[in-house]
Design a protein that fits this description.
- With 328 residues, the chain is α/β, with parallel strands linked by helices.
- Helices cover 29% and strands 17% of the residues.
- It has one domain (15-326): TIM Barrel (Alpha-Beta Barrel).
- The protein has helices at residues 48-60, 79-88, 103-113, 127-134, 139-151, 172-182, 208-218, 281-286, 291-303, and strands at residues 15-19, 65-69, 93-98, 117-121, 157-163, 185-190, 221-224, 232-236, 243-247, 260-263, 268-270, 279-280.
- The relative contact order is 0.16.
- The structure holds iron/sulfur cluster (SF4).
């Protein structure tokens, strides 16, 4: 095992997000236009062999968590064998973020392949609003997917809910009730300036404190230690199952103890969700670089990782890629 990946602020990067595709079968209004985006040609996507090899290099660099993301990762054919490959590589914590549309039919095979846990994006529990926000009338299928994930033993099950002012902030208490009824953890994510249509504005952000206050008034909350993960997590004071979390990227940035790094579907290494520069690992792979050369490039990029995003600074520059082209 090589020395861990430590940046100049002393943060250890051990949580790798790997995007399997930029394509998605939803059209979330805070992410992409109704017509979708210009998808990457297949030849530009990392192959499963390339992903497996890269993950091997990162494991040697101390990565412990590998999260498969997208676009929508379950859209990529043969994802189950990839999960098996990565599990066989000995990834200690293998998880996925999905929109859940294909989960009902795939949960069992994913669990059998070695997937441990899952995050599912659900922005509304109201059928009509879910359809408005995702441009897909698919709430029931996603709820079926959650139940299938539970039956398959994927745990814990976490829901990611992006809260957008004027759209779904009136549902946060209902989501807390849903968490209590199911035992899931619902995390409320502040809307970030990563939407492809650049419609983000600060007044559409619902600060996490506001979300927590609304829930706490009805279901008192107790903070729970959450380690380096981005979400601040809470349990219910009355001992009810489930919990809630907040990811306050805009109102309370948590970059100071960031442990996350990313590989895009086309093999670009990003040390931050909002990074303005990338390292082309695909070019290295396809040019015949060996694992040490790839590890050196990764270590060099992490060493140069910036302190954090600059959303709240006057000089903030949006990354050239939107969310679906980076991966959650
Ligand atoms: S914005 Fe970048 S540095 Fe900050 S927590 Fe997210 S990935 Fe880490």
């Amino acid at each position: 095992m090589n020395a861990p990946l430590v940046d100049r602020f002393g943060r250890v990067a051990d949580d790798l997000r790997v995007s399997l595709t930029d394509r998605c079968n939803f059209r979330c209004t805070y992410c992409m236009p109704a017509e979708g985006l210009a998808w990457l040609p297949r030849s530009e996507l990392l192959t499963y062999e390339e992903i497996e090899r890269l993950v091997g290099v990162f494991l040697d660099l101390g990565v412990r968590t590998v999260r498969l993301t997208g676009g929508e990762p379950l859209l990529r054919r043969g994802v189950e064998p990839l999960v098996s490959l990565l599990a066989a590589r000995g990834v200690p914590d293998l998880s996925m973020t999905t929109n859940g549309l294909l989960l009902a039919e795939k949960a069992e095979a994913l669990a059998a392949a070695g997937l441990r846990r899952i995050n599912v994006s659900v922005d509304s529990l109201l059928r009509h609003r879910f359809a408005e926000m995702t441009r897909r009338d698919a709430l029931e299928r996603v709820l079926d997917g959650l139940r299938a994930a539970e039956r398959a033993g994927l745990a814990p099950i976490k829901l990611n809910c992006v809260v957008v002012r004027g759209t779904n902030e009136d549902e946060v208490v209902d989501f807390a009730r849903f968490a209590r009824a199911t035992g899931y953890q619902v995390r409320f994510i502040e809307f970030m300036p990563l939407d492809a249509e650049e419609g983000w504005s600060r007044d559409r952000v619902v600060p996490s404190e506001e979300v927590l206050a609304a829930i706490d008034r009805v279901h008192p909350l107790v903070p729970v230690d959450h380690g380096p993960e981005p979400a601040r997590v809470f349990r219910f004071a009355d001992g009810a199952p489930g919990g809630v979390g907040v990811i306050a990227s805009v109102s309370e940035p948590f970059c100071g103890d960031c442990n996350r790094i990313r590989i895009t579907a086309d093999g670009q290494f990003r040390t931050c969700l909002f990074a303005l520069e990338e390292t082309d690992l695909r070019r290295l792979l396809r040019a015949g670089a060996d694992d040490d050369q790839i590890a050196a490039a990764v270590r060099d990029a992490v060493a140069r990782k910036w302190a954090g995003h600059r959303i709240n600074e006057a000089d903030f520059v949006r990354p050239a890629r939107s969310m679906s082209m980076i991966g959650g």
